[in-house]
Design brief:
Length: about 100
């Protein structure tokens, strides 16, 4: 029997998906190759899912709208645009 590396086992488990891995583990726990790595992978998946959920909650809790820096950038661009239009208008009138 050839022993697989941790990365090989994790790659195989990733391709199966968490639901399928849990289903197979519940159905026939004795048939699972490398049970220690399977449990380690499941713990890792739980940590990843928890971190993603935390990040999603943090993003949802943020106030909607533009940040202060973005508002400043938009305001600056608008001011430059108005100044360019005014300058073009003045130069056009001067040529007449």
């Amino acid at each position: 029997m050839v022993r697989k590396t941790r990365e090989q086992v994790f790659r195989e488990l990733d391709s199966l998906g968490e639901d399928e891995v849990r289903r197979r583990l519940d159905a026939k726990p004795a048939d699972v190759e490398e049970p220690g790595l399977v449990h380690e992978w499941l713990i890792h998946r739980e940590r990843v899912n928890s971190a993603l959920a935390d990040t999603s909650r943090e993003l949802a809790a943020r106030r909607p709208g533009l940040s202060r820096g973005m508002k400043r950038a938009v305001g600056s661009a608008a001011l430059i645009g108005v100044a360019a239009v005014a300058l073009a208008f003045l130069l056009a009138r001067r040529k007449r």
